[in-house]
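Exam review. A common question shows you a sequence with its structure tokens and asks you to describe the fold in words. Practice with the pair below. Do the first one on your own.
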Amino acid sequence: MKTLVIAAFTGVIAGLLGALCGVGGGIVMVPAFVTVLGFEQKKAVATSLAVIVIIALVATLNTSLRKEPGLIDWRVVALAAVAAALAAWFGTDLMHKLSNQYLTRIFGVVLLVFGVKMLLSK
């Protein structure tokens, strides 16, 4: 039961941040799944990716139904989605080959680099 409550709370935070900041929720879910639920890094990443599919679909649908046209550039979506899908296919193969510890370090470095960049930008 505790796991379900934590998962639901993590989902709420990830959904809000995903919709507000476009982060996909992974920056919340992966650390929460690892530190609070005790998942290994690979399981946390895989679970987060599955949740992000739903978050992205719901947020995109709600955004596209609003009366503020032009917020989504569908040409960019098409090109970026194809490129991201190809990279994700090969990225998941790479994930299976790397250790949980190495993946955790990569994730931490990515969060630090982009976090610092965002804090120092105008």
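Now try the second one, then compare your answer with the model answer below.
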Amino acid sequence: MRDPIGLYIHIPWCIRKCPYCDFNSHEFEAEAAQGLPHALAEHYVDQLLRDFQSDLHLFDLHPNISSIFIGGGTPSLMPAKSLSRLLELIDQKVQLPRDIEITLEANPNSADQARLQGYRQAGINRLSLGIQSFNDQHLNLLGRLHDGQEAEVAVDAARRAGFENLNLDLMYGLPTQTLDDALADLDEALGLAPEHISWYQLTIEPNTLFYRRRPALPSDASISDISDAGIARLTQAGFQRYEVSAFATPNRQSQHNRTYWEFGDYLGIGAGAHGKVSSNGRIWRTQKTRVPKDYLTEPKRQYAEVERAELPLEFLLNALRLREGFMLAQFELRTGLSSELIKPALAECEQLGLLKLMGTQVKPTDWGYDRLDSILERFAMRAR
């Protein structure tokens, strides 16, 4: 029996593209309360199901799916009934575990209580709210469609709808943001008692409006101060930093995201979705048609084998993001390679104080965890 795998489902539409966003999202003119038209949503669900079955056939999979993540875009523009039908048909195909984690990303402006109740009744049991900030000035600079009060209302609506596993997405290093501003955002979030907080730095990515019109950001020193103070604040509040930008209360780590970081397999369906699949001793990366209208007409995939020489670095890019690091046996299981290949670079990083080797466990030191790029550079240099 093969290891459990994740399933990622991409919903590509947004009401408005945020200036920092480099995800595959496409503007759709609709009121948030209305969401996508029923006919469009149902057509998209039909294509998602074809996409899913095509992947199963191509890779000869009979998967034990351990988690589902519905991301975007703005998945909360999808009607709850359409997502319910999608999940029911996937369940009929592969028999989902009764306790499976199913996450939906939602924006506060499209997360009214009636809609959220429909998602909860559909079997979605984890909600990830894209709040980014509670400061109205910063939300405006980020191009968000909600304000701080709407974010709080959305959290309350989620609880009333029955969600007991809630993640709040927050960003720091925003234009004009001070240390006090960033900590005020965290305090607002902590006051809402979520089970999980994703707290990450704003980065300027190519193919975004911010890349073409770069805003003035806080200095590197200010961002470092914000990061240190924020981590301390979250830790003091009882959150465990288990990944670079992920903080969870006990037993509330994101199981789906851990699949990525542990270099596990996952199918990716939907316009622009990516996947990683191990099949017959080979590892494949997949990507689907990006443009929604093309995906709706005839979904296509690109797939490429990950070369053996690339596997060590690919594994480490993910596994070293986890605070606990990884086991050497896990490296061998996920890549099919001997751990002897990476031991010289591991030893070098240990000498430099970047990694700690504890028997068969490899773990970043506190100092090394803030210098993951330096660790990866060592492995990349040895791979040449």
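Model answer, second protein: The mean pLDDT is 95. The chain has two domains: 5-260, 308-384. Full marks require stating both points clearly.
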